[in-house]
Design brief:
The complex is a heterodimer. Chain A is mainly alpha-helical. Chain A has 4 helices and no strands. Chain A has 2 domains: 1-62, no CATH class; 64-126, NADH:ubiquinone/plastoquinone oxidoreductase, chain 3 (Methane Monooxygenase Hydroxylase, Chain G, domain 1, Up-down Bundle), CATH 1.20.58. Chain A has helices spanning 6-29, 43-46, 67-90, 92-119. The chains are: A mainly alpha, B mainly alpha.
């Protein structure tokens, strides 16, 4: 039974490798890394927050706008929709045309909600 | 053998992350530990062959619900001083843990588990797999599934009405 999870393990390792490579590449090419030019930077400059060359103001710990919450709520709802697509896709061939129509109805009803959100300009940033 | 080892690794990770959730002062650190606990739980579900449940645990709980939790933390944005004041004393936590252990865990350990023949369940190995869940959901429970889309639609409209001040 456990052998079936071999693929999951491969994906997991590939994912970890992907993230590690991003860090290693950054380290290799950074000024003080493996291939860096070894400038003598001041410690304050090295530890400074770098954001698009614009000087940062204040901390990142501030109260976020309530508007973000609406996006999170909508995300969770459509996330749940995606969860139901998964077992449907696995048994798609077995279910046939009937299963296809079923899922079209399901998504059509949810698209009404999406259209409503769009109409009310809920996805528009203000 | 390897299943037993995996089980203990996942169980230890689950308990470790669970303890981190209640011991961290920084709520974001707590939330991240909760993501780890959810991942451990998903691993345990996968070991029980409940693959659909395991996917839901990752996708909806570790992915979606935790976004909501983190957003609430960021919306409230409590100052470190406020958080320090809310810290419970160490012995209170210990007492609470002992209380929970006595009230919930020990009846399970000593009464429920020994009385059941857990190892030889009557379900087939396919039970809980993606294909069997799909077959059940889209054939036998078709109507509840379609009603579900209406429930989600209600959630969309409800979220919009609550979050948007002027519609």
């Amino acid at each position: 039974m456990l052998e079936q999870y071999g693929y999951v393990l491969v994906f997991l390792l590939a994912g970890i490798f992907f993230i590690l490579m991003a860090f290693i590449t950054g380290w290799v090419f950074s000024p003080n890394g493996l291939l860096g030019l070894r400038y003598k930077y001041k410690k304050e400059i090295l530890e400074d927050t770098y954001e698009c060359g614009v000087e940062t103001q204040g901390t990142s710990w501030f109260r976020f706008n309530i508007s973000f919450y609406l996006y999170a709520l909508l995300f969770v709802i459509f996330d749940i929709e995606t969860v139901f697509l998964y077992p449907w896709a696995v048994s798609f061939k077995k279910l046939g045309v009937f299963g296809f129509v079923e899922m079209v109805v399901f998504i059509a009803i949810l698209l009404v909600g999406f259209a409503y959100a769009w109409k009310k300009e809920a996805l528009k940033w203000e | 053998m390897i299943e037993t080892v995996l089980f203990y690794i996942l169980a230890a990770a689950l308990i470790g992350f669970g303890l981190m959730v209640i011991t961290r002062t920084n709520p974001i650190a707590s939330a991240m530990a909760m993501v780890g606990a959810f991942a451990g739980l998903a691993g345990l579900y996968a070991m029980l062959n409940a693959r659909f449940l395991s996917i839901i645990q990752i996708l909806v709980y570790a992915g979606g619900i935790m976004v909501l939790v983190i957003f609430v933390i960021m919306l409230l944005n409590l100052e470190p001083e406020d958080l320090q004041r809310m810290r419970a004393k160490g012995f209170v936590v210990l007492l609470a843990l002992i209380g929970v252990g006595a009230a919930i865990v020990s009846p399970m350990l000593f009464c429920v588990i020994p009385n059941k023949d857990w190892a030889n369940g009557s379900v087939s190995p396919e039970f809980g797999s993606m294909a069997s869940v799909g077959a059940k959901m889209f054939a036998d429970h078709l109507f509840p599934f379609e009603i579900l889309s209406l429930v989600l639609l209600t959630a969309v409209v409800g979220a919009l009405v609550l979050a948007k001040r002027k519609l």
